[in-house]
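README: folding subset

This subset contains proteins for which both the sequence and a predicted C-alpha cell string are available. Records are stored as plain text. Below is the entry for TrpR YerC/YecD (98 residues), shown exactly as it appears on disk.
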Amino acid sequence: MSKKIRTEAVDQLFEAILNLKDKEECYLFFEDVCTVNELLSLSQRFEVAKMLREHKTYLEIAEKTGASTATISRVNRSLNYGNDGYEMVFDRMQEKKQ
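--- output ---
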C-alpha cells in the first residue's frame, strides 16, 4: 500500500467507515462526506471493475457505465497490478451470496 495515503486522517476515516452498520447508514454517511459526483465516480469505478472481471470489452463497459476509456484503463491497471483490494471485496461478496 502506498505510504502517501497512510495518514492519521485516513485511518480515522476508515475507522468511521468500519463503524457503519448497514447500507442505509452508508448512504447517510457518504452523502455527507462525498459530493454526489464523487460518490457516483466511486460507484462507476466499482461497476467497471466488476465488468472487467466478467471479461467485458472496453466498448461494452463504456456504453453501460458511461466511463471513459481512461477510467476503464486505470481500473484495469488496478485489477492487474494493484493491491488486490477489488478481488478481496468481490470474493467476500461472492462468499456472502452462497
